Amino acid sequence: MPKSEAPSLRLVDVDDYATCQGCVHGTAVVDCRTRRLVDLLPGREVSSLAEWLAKRPGSR
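Above: the chain's sequence. Below: its structure in C-alpha cell form.
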C-alpha cells in the first residue's frame, strides 16, 4: 500500500491491528480528515508512535 506524505496532518486516529491470526501486531495511523491510511507502524509500543510523531514537525 503506498504511503501518502501529508504535511498538513492535523488530526490522526491510531488503532492497533493484527495479521496472520494474531501473530503479527502493529499500529495503523489514519488521517481523520481524509479517512485514509497514512502509515503502518511495526509493533504496538507507545515509543514507536512517539518516534513517528516526532518526525513530523507540525504534530502535537
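Residues 13 and 32 are 6 Å apart (CA to CA).
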